[in-house]
Amino acid sequence: MKIGIFDSGVGGLTVLKALREELPSVDFFYLGDTARVPYGGKSKETIQRYSLECAEFLLSFGVELLVVACNTASAYALEALKDKLSIPVIGVIQPGVEKAIKISKQKKIGVIGTRGTIQSKAYQKLLESYGAQVFAKACPLFVPLVEEGILNGTIAKSVIEYYLQELKGKIDTLILGCTHYPLLKEPIKQFMGEVDVVDSAEAVAKKVSQIARNEGEGNLRLFFTDNSPNLRAMIRLILGQDLKFEIVPVLCRL
Ligand code: DGL
Q: Could you tell me if the CB of 40 is within 6 A of ligand 1?
């Protein structure tokens, strides 16, 4: 079984990690669009075009299922991808929402993400369709914080407080609606106190494992569109090891 997974950059490696834990025998092809990251502040049209290009690149390896690890791309391009592709396409929003609805007792649910994800209202509409009361907040400084490796300490704590103060006391469940946020899960949990934190990466891995076959050689190929200075360090930080990766500056069929 070959599964393709793409993200705007390195953050989607959190989703890849969770997927490999669930499906260790599957062959994974990961594409991080590091040349064009971040997607979080770009228009819908641009995000759709980038997403279709990423998908087309991964299809050239014969992937049988596509995971859109990026929340912003899931918010803006999932339907376009489903329309164009003949393989199953799974985004991160539905699995994250389903998990939050399942565990939330009061159905007072917070969701945090990039400006694009929050402005798209994709999470809010889906949560509301299940009858939840939704509190959404864009946290644009979280992505650069993680990219700088600032995952705890006073700076991380004050940025978390700056964004999440207004959600405190209002919600019983919080969805981490961005690839990078699972790396800030511990300080977020500490700040929010008695709140269940839903990691979309884990939720999507569980969902994919229900429909994919755990068959293959367990191989992994990592592709990025730019060899950014912190790429190697981010791979080590998220996957816990140094791994070989390939640079594909132009996304054309191989
Ligand atoms: N991958 C993006 C997401 O999950 C975060 C980084 C970006 O803005 O591209 O929304």
A: yes
Assess whether 252 carries a catalytic annotation.
no
Region label for 107, one of left (φ > 0), alpha (ψ between -120 and 50) or beta (otherwise): left
Residue 178 is among the residues annotated as catalytic for this protein: yes
Q: Confirm whether 139 is domain-assigned.
A: yes
Overall average pLDDT of the 3-13 stretch: 96
Same domain, 193 and 213: no
Q: Which of 169, 164, 170 is nearest to 185 (CA)?
A: 164
Q: What percentage of the chain exceeds 70 in pLDDT? A: 98
Give pLDDT tens digits for 74-129. Answer: 999 999 999 999 999 999 999 999 999 999 999 999 999 999 999 999 999 999 99
CATH of the domain at 104: 3.40.50.1860
Examine the domain organization and report whether 55 and 73 are in the same domain.
yes
CA trace torsion 158, 151, 112, 194 (10° rounding): -80
60 vs 73: CA distance, rounded Å: 20
Q: How many domains does the chain have?
A: 2
Whose tokens are 């068959």? That residue is 215
Check if 38 has its Cβ closer than 6 Å to any atom of ligand 1. yes
Instruction: Say whether the peptide bond before residue 95 is cis (omega within 30 degrees of 0).
Output: no
Ligand 1 within 6 A of CB of 39: yes
Query: What average pLDDT does the chain have?
Result: 95
In this prediction, residue 7 carries a pLDDT of 97
* Cα–Cα distance measured from residue 181 to residue 200, given in angstroms and rounded to the nearest whole number: 9
**Strand partners for 221:** 29
Give mean pLDDT, residues 203-231.
Answer: 95
